[in-house]
Amino acid sequence: MSKQEELDILKQKIVDNLECPLKDAATNLVFGKGNPDADILFIGEAPGAQEDLQGIPFVGKAGQQLDELLHSIGLSLDDVYIANILKYRPPENRDPKTDEIRSHTPYLIEQIKIIKPKLICTLGNFSTKFVLAKFDVDGMKKIQGISSLHGDPVDVQVDGLSFKVMPLYHPAAVIYRRAWKEDLEKDFLKIKDFLL
Q1: CB 132 within 8 A of CB 144
Q2: Terminus of the chain with fewer CB atoms < 10 Å: N or C?
Q3: CA Rg, the chain, in Å?
Q4: Are 138 and 185 in contact (CB under 8 A)?
């Protein structure tokens, strides 16, 4: 069975089994996009309004910013896979709640196990804390913020998986905080170095 077929089965499992108030309020499930055989997995926190409407992650302004950054290092959607912790949009783009993260966590872990990336790029605080806490939601408070961690790769071994994690600013954050854009561009160059 191909990775894409495994992901399709997992996607249906979320539709059939996930019980979460976000599901009832959302327009679409936002599962993931890109190449399931990619060595690089980007993880954001949750879908926004455009993502909810289209059922595809990172299609709004943050997605355009991410596409530009990928192109700047010679990559495209054919070279990476993109997913979020939450598969359904929180109302008004509010921060994910702990119980929402907990209910979606098993599905993201399954995505990671299927894709088997060599590098996970976490976008923003929530996804960084999630991954670096080794999938322990209750341990999220122990991890430093993204401004301290961004651009420094970390080796992670959990659940039989071994990969590097590169914490990054969220592309949406640099739209509003232009001073962070240069840092994010430099961090993307490190991703390019990882591929060499």
Answers
A1: no
A2: C
A3: 15
A4: no
Question: How open is the CA angle 163-169-174, to the nearest 5 degrees?
Answer: 155
Q: How many Cα atoms are found within 13 Å in the side-chain-facing hemisphere of 178? A: 0
Condensed to tens digits (0 to 9), the pLDDT of residues 24-73 reads 889 999 999 999 999 999 999 999 999 999 999 999 888 999 999 999 99
Element (H or E) spanning 81, and its range? strand 80-84
Beta strand extents in 110-185 (DSSP E only) = 119-123, 154-158, 161-168
State both tokens at 17. Answer: 């089994």
d(CA 127, CA 51) in angstroms, rounded, equals: 17
User: How much is the pTM?
Assistant: 0.92
Residue 50's CATH number: 3.40.470.10
Backbone angles phi, psi at 97, to 5 degrees: -90, 155
| Tally of structural domains, the chain | 1
Q: Which domain holds residue 35?
A: 3-195
Q: Give 168's strand partners.
A: 123
Q: Whose structure tokens read 């530009």?
A: 68
The b/e string for 48-76 (b: 16+ C-beta within 10 A; e otherwise) is bebbbbbebbbbbebbebbbebbeebebe
